[in-house]
Amino acid sequence: MSSTIVSLPDQSTARIPKVNYLTKENGLLSWLLTGDHKRIAILYLISITFFFFIGGALAGLIRLELLTPQADLMATDTYNKVFTMHGVIMIFFFLVPSVPATLGNFLIPLMIGAKDLALPKINLLSWYLYLAGGTLALYTMMTGGVDTGWTFTTPLSTHYLNTNVLTTGLAVFIAGFSSIFTGLNFIVTIHKMRCPGMTWFRLPLFVWAHYAASILMVLGTPVLAIAIVLVALERTIGIGVFDPTKGGDPLLFQHLFWFYSHPAVYIMILPGMGVISETISTFSRKRVFGYTAVAFSSVAIAVFGFFVWAHHMFIMGISNYAMLVFSLLTMLVAVPSAIKIFNWTFTLYKGSITFETPMLYSFGFMGLFTIGGLTGVFLGTSGTDIHLTETYFIVAHFHFVMVGGMLMAFLAGIHFWWPKMTGRMYPEKISQLAAVVTFIGFNFTFFPQFILGTLGMPRRYAAYPPEFQILNVFSTAGASILGVGYLLPVIYLVWSLKYGEIAGSNPWQATGLEWQIQSPPLTENFVVTPIMDHEAYDYDWLEKKKEKEVVTSVG
Amino acid sequence: MSDSPAIVHEADHHEHPAYLRHHFESVEQQADTTNFAMWLFLLTEVMFFGGLFTAYLIYRNWYYQAFVAGSHQLSILWGTLNTGVLISSSFTMAMGVWCAETRRRQGLVLSLVITFVLGLVFLGIKSIEYSEKIEKHHVPGFHYSLQSFLDPDSDEAAKAAGDKPLPLDVARHTEVYFSLYFAMTGMHALHMIIGIAILGYMIFRAQAGAYTTGHVTFVENFGLYWHFVDIIWIFLFPLLYLISRHA
User: Fold this and answer.
1) B5·A531 Cβ contact <8 A
2) CA B120 to chain centre
3) Which of A331, A362, B56, B111 supports an S-S bond with A279, CB 3.0-4.6 Å?
4) Do the beta carbons of residue A406 and residue A464 sit within 8 Å?
5) Shortest CB distance from A188 goes to which of B6, B40, B52?
6) Per-residue pLDDT of chain B (247 residues; tens, 9 = 90+)
7) Distance between CA B175 and CA B177 in Å, rounded?
């Protein structure tokens, strides 16, 4: 780790630019009524971090309860509420908006050379909707919670539970609109706001990944909305669309729900993959290997992602033929994911690799996502799935993808673009430590759960047979390490806001348009509309540009 | 910053109209962009109603007899009338867009007012239909009554359609039909109510002279929304009212 590509300006003379998007206007109202995509991204970042720690605290409670085989820390129905709220908050209020609403919001206009997203007011509205949904979710948690599991399974949710199903459903419904508006805004922006010369195949892969995720948000979320509306109508007036006693079919709810919620998994992972494409290229100083393949694999994941939903229902009584088809399609979706992993690996090959924090997180992503993805293929095989479903194997699988994948990517992205967002560097050594601690803690937490799953420990129970205790103790211990790994960045990133080194406009020597302007950027991003006259990830172009700049400044 | 990336100066632009938002290069780009956004939004609406149409498709195939009997309880007269009302309102809305484009303020206000009134008429007729269902206990839930289907002679509408008494297990499935009827028309009515509220706001603004200065995007996009709601009804009407009425 001796070499580094970081090049900072001379700290004795460097200053943060006086005029930037943070200092342009002051006062609370200038933030609450802003149309600036960068400020909205910061608002999102703060609120998302808040919800992440609420969800994290609930995860901590779950792990504490599972430290011992008996249900002794909390009553079993409290446990049900805790894991439900953990799921609802982490999925709808952290993972779905995590990278898109913060980094995507901040970066897409910068990367395509636009002054803002196409619809700034809608962008702000989406944040308010997110906040309204989140507040409502917290309110339901305070006033008794909900214990359906985050999947709102009927008829449990419509007939048998007397908890806050309606208000939680409403919270998710509202947050869904926030997600629709974000996706819609991205698609329109990427289509209509690109600067001259910015063709589709010159877009950074981060933008491609967000484009694919946006398609999923726009097409999938409304289906979740109607499913929730029908559940609400069934709970309140008692219509019979999902009620078997009236001739309705609960399986229809599963179809509608997973038609959104499976693609939602790709909403959660695709933007993270976009981050990884950027960091891998920057820290190995090479154009991403097979740019076109990586770009199209994002779209392929989005398209295939819509046709695999019934693999969540293999034990719910769908027909054998449906099982066969959905099993095959599930395996097909592994192909574009593998294309990405292979292409990133080839990007590393003969690259000049350095190990700054974002790169460490990216390596974490590649390893953990591969494990998470491959166990997904196990589970897509119907026979194996019937054995493993509803056990901890599933829990481990999706945490490898979501936490090991998306959260690692989120942290990689936050560190990578932190100097652009704030104008200051985070402290390198301690953040490298945090990345390593996170990786170790993660594996300690979730790898034992794979074993527990294969041994047959069911998910969603507060108690378990005593022979599973040792692995559960491992898992809980790992969760404590993981918690430290997540707390560290919060502390040193806040610290760096005041004491971090001045970053200058391009500390990583990266090629994206966002790195060619001052950090933090101006409110309108570019002084003059840029013209894109080179390919993405063109490091030769960057070298030539630097030479010219040196010449001009000397002359 | 000598020559790369090359530079487009903004200073040599012509004067901008006030409605051009700061982040767009030109009025055309702005109109194009918001239009595209509206179409995308309508796509999400298609997916939203798509869930209901899927449910309808499945249950109609399973419970065809019950769906036929259920549909006989709807008044084709009111339904047809409402279809006419809604199509007329789409026409006046289109007139409104045209008036805005050709900068006819009075024409715009008049078209919007007529659209507004026709929207209200639609909801009025819908509420008459709903109240009939409530009186007959055809609203799904605790008070749902099967009498019209078990004993069609006791029910005028069923009698007029020549319904035979249904066995109990078949008759029970009419509740699924009415579940879908209320969910679908209810969601449609909700969209109408939102549309009418926006129309009210637009009438107010149009009187003050907005939309007739060349900036017609809002009227145009609202027009798209209104036509979309209309089209949803065009599908709902045959699916719910005319199940057994084909030749």
Assistant:
1) yes
2) 13
3) A362
4) no
5) B40
6) 344 444 444 444 456 777 888 888 888 889 899 999 999 999 999 999 999 999 999 999 999 999 999 999 999 999 999 999 999 999 999 999 999 999 999 999 999 999 999 999 999 999 999 999 999 999 998 889 999 999 998 888 888 888 899 999 999 999 999 999 999 999 999 999 999 999 999 999 999 988 988 889 999 999 999 999 999 999 999 999 999 876 5
7) 5
Give pLDDT tens digits for A491-539.
999 999 999 999 999 999 999 999 999 999 999 999 999 999 999 999 9
Question: Using alpha carbons only, how large is chain A's radius of gyration in Å?
Answer: 23
Residue spans of the domains in chain A: they are 28-554
The encoded tokens of residue A373 equal 């993805």
Q: Which two tokens stand for residue A171?
A: 């919270």
- Chain A residue with Cα closest to B32: A192
CB pairs under 8 A between A and B: 147
Given a contact cutoff of 8 angstroms between Cβ atoms, the answer to whether A514 and A111 are in contact is: yes
CATH number of A28-554: 1.20.210.10
- The nearest CA of chain B is from the CA of A9 a distance in Å of 18
**Tokens linked to B199:** 């129309």
In the numeric block, the tokens 């011992």 are attached to A68
- Please report, for chain A, how many H helices and E strands are present, in that order: 19, 1
Alpha carbon dihedral B189, B193, B196, B198, in 10-degree steps, equals: -130
CATH superfamily of B59-241: Cytochrome c oxidase, subunit III, four-helix bundle (1.20.120.80)
Torsion of CA A340, A344, A347, A348, to 10 degrees: -160
Q: Which residue from B176, B234, B167 is spatially nearest to B58, judged by alpha carbons?
A: B176
Partner residue facing A222 (CB), from B8, B44, B141: B44
Q: What is the pLDDT of residues A233-291, one digit of tens each?
A: 999 988 989 999 889 999 999 999 999 999 999 999 999 999 999 999 999 999 999 99
Q: Would you call the peptide bond into A520 cis, given omega within 30 degrees of 0 as the criterion?
A: yes
Q: Nearest CB to B175: which of A227, A240, A524?
A: A240
Contact between B54 and A242 under an 8 Å Cβ cutoff? The reply is no
Cβ distance of B179 and A239 shorter than 8 Å? yes
Which chain B residue is nearest to residue A545, measuring alpha carbons? B4
